[in-house]
Fold this protein.
Amino acid sequence: MPKLTRNLKPEEFGEYYFLKEELKDFCRSEGLKVSGSKQELENRIIHYLSTGEELNEPVVRQKSNASSSEINLDSRLGENFKCSEDKRAFFENEIGKGFKFKVRFQKWLKANPDKTYRDAVDAYHEIQGSNQKTEIGKQFQYNQYIRDFFEDNEGKSLDDAIRCWKHKKSLKGHNRYEKSDLEVLK
């Protein structure tokens, strides 16, 4: 796998898997913005590698939602819902210590700004009771790989899956699980 430097061609960058921390380190070293999702960092780096210039990104100001002291079951979720510690504390208090901001619930929260926290608690229980698999976002290649590995390899360990993943991500090309990845375990 090549080292991420300003001399890397954008096409070659796209052929390899880099950890988010590696992307952030590169952005820091080149004076680029370091915040954002992994996909935003990748887009920023591709633009920089292509043009040598920083990507002009609009500044987004977030309106804060109700603070934890204002949150109650009848509070509205509001636009641009953020899964913050005060909201986690609220949901843990209402749902229990096993509460987690899982992807399907986060998507529900963001898609329903006019709903109340009471509606959110009900939705959380409904989602938890469902056996439907969560769709894994494109940027979470590791998670998708591990899920696919276990669907195809009952009885294998997480260590086996991680060994295969580490090998796969070091190769040029896609990072999707393939049966041939098991060769590294022999």
